[in-house]
Transposase
Amino acid sequence: MSLKYKANNPNGIYFITLTVVEWADVFTRRAYCELVCDSLSYCQQKKELTLYAWCIMTNHVHLICSAPKLTDVMRDLKKYTSRFLVDAIKNNPKESRKNWLLWMFKSAADKSSSHGEYQFWQLGGHYVELSTNELMEQRLEYLHQNPVKAAFVEEPEQWYYSSARDYAGEKGRLEIVLIE
């Protein structure tokens, strides 16, 4: 991975995208989104993760965040959520795509020596340091407009799994620090 996509500044605020392998639409189920939210909340409480903005789309997650050891936090978050999301899919009797999703995660793991039986997230992550107010505003707008551009909602704050609610003055799903 090039240095361009790593969190090199321990005091920096980063825009990060985590993507499901093969862009599989996993986060169409509330239970799977809740697992990611619970994991992010844990990282906030136990791993010094500060969230400024976030959005869970159907096949990827956007975060604007910081932490003293951000790369380690994201590694742990991905490792934990991978295991528990795969288990949630396996144990969901209503999951109509179970066999297909598990096959896809297994196929991805077979191509990588660093994974066990299943690989949920694509390798690495896309880290962009938000070193200027202009970059911060651009990425914040992009993140919150994602569900609107995908035609899931008409207004950003209508998307439950996003910090857009907080920025609209409503109570969101996760605790965040508003970017002023």
